[in-house]
Amino acid sequence: MSTAPRRNRRAPSSTSSRTAREKPPQGVVTEPEPRPDKIPFDIDDVLARVRESVRDFADAAMFALSARGHDSLFEQLVACILSIRTLDEVSLPAALALLERASTPEALARMSPGDIDALIRPVTFHEAKAHQLHAIAVRTRDEFGGTLPCDAQVLQSFKGVGPKCAHLALGIACGHEAISVDIHVHRVTNRWGYVKARSPEATMAALETQLPRRYWVELNRLLVPFGKHVCTGSRPKCSTCPVLDSCRQVGVTNPR
User: Fewest 10 Å CB contacts: which of 1, 38, 94, 120?
Assistant: First the structure.
């Protein structure tokens, strides 16, 4: 009897055995279901429209930092850690304050966790992040000679660094083709009907099988502002959405 609930949490039976073996059980690649009021879903067309619609919105924090010259892998990793559970409007100024004081592992390692904490105090979990950043700086200096390698496994070996931060930092700083899925990317791609997944991790796995590689890094850059300003978590602005005619509006019950 104890095994029945576990079977029920597995991927739907329509998923191939190969997909079930290789991907998290919640992540399913889907062809958006046909609807008489929707046109066929074309990811190239959809992302082109999204790109135009977010042109006047502020870039996500890590891309904004890169544009300001903080584009090393170490700086991008620091910025991503600061952004965890924190709004860009808060994490970006904190990252700028810290990186203007210490933009290299050597400089950050010379600071005390208390000094780091004083500069990043507005971000969520600032005290824990101060100790985390100091430890990353010391290890980068001592183990990697002050330069982080462009290696996802190395980045994820640091405490608190998961696939999202590793992939986004590598994409921006190293040009790696890697998908970074935050809550906005997860929500929007599932709402479109492009994937069907219960968690950001499962969404990332599903997108890796379906999304053209040329969009892997750009996807986060586009969907963070799109998710903030258009395809919002509650009451999305469907009436003014540039891709309404393609979006399957999965789970949308109270749009504006």
Answer: 1
